[in-house]
DNA sequence: ACTATATAGTTCGGTATCAAACCAAAGGAG
DNA sequence: CTCCTTTGGTTTGATACCGAACTATATAGT
């Protein structure tokens, strides 16, 4: 039976764990969110609140590392819920501006309030020190993957 | 503007990085796989080769931490490709046995050969020591999430 | 034995995601 | 100015995934 080298095996295990954690944590998070918000939708709302500036669908897609098509879909759902609006960019006929609506701001606050406690529970699983230790390595990995796709 | 506590913020960042890595690495991996195999499908084949014993859909779902419905769907696609077969369990009228076919074994070998090198490239992003350091913490997190869902 | 509960598996409706193909507008090279 | 390439956005088709509802079988409690 063919197998992977130990190095490859370790990487495979790592990515496997990461995939499962991603799944479980998204599902967990989503169950907390009000208004039928999904993680992807909440992330966009949160992003718009936290980071000032003009955000186009393309910039958002790049920020979240998803394809333009995926972002189109997520934005359409947010528009349908009245949480954002898409406006034409006067200086570029192709582009659009993504704008948070009043309702979008409110929904984001509510989601934050609902999800924060659930996030806190995770401290039982991992100490703050462990969390801080994990982040830089994962960022390195994420950046490498982004650069080499 | 409402924000998260620093602790919550760190956890949020962590889960965010994990989500993006999961996405990017699955997409990368999948592009390498032959026969239109997906990561989910390959994982099942690989699992059946590496771990002896009888595997039912329910056991596989638990092992991969997905719902039974998700596993049903993945297994149906593998059956359609002729890579596994589902057989009734003589001792339990509800259960089934998942069996790898010849073609399944071959496909798994081919996938391994195709994907191994791509996995190796990741060593450029993270040293073996970093990888080994990451795994235990992530496992702790995964196990906690599994237990508390 | 009968009933209630738990477990195995499927199906359904919805969202996210990708890749690929497409259109329209912008920018650069001649 | 015209052609070519790049960029912004949408659409389509496929897969994975969840949660919830459902059927059928098994097991436990009384």
Automatic annotation (TrEMBL), chains A, B:
Enumerate the transmembrane spans. none
Keywords linked to the UniProt accession: DNA-binding, Transcription, Transcription regulation
**What sequence ranges are listed for the domain HTH marR-type?**
8-143
Instruction: Show the PROSITE patterns listed in the entry.
Output: HTH_MARR_1, HTH_MARR_2
Q: Which Pfam families match?
A: MarR_2
Q: Which GO terms describe its biological process?
A: response to stress
Q: Output the SMART domains linked to this UniProt entry.
A: HTH_MARR
One of the entry's Gene Ontology molecular-function terms is:
DNA-binding transcription factor activity
State what protein this is by name. Answer: HTH marR-type domain-containing protein
What organism is the protein native to?
Answer: Hyphomonas chukchiensis
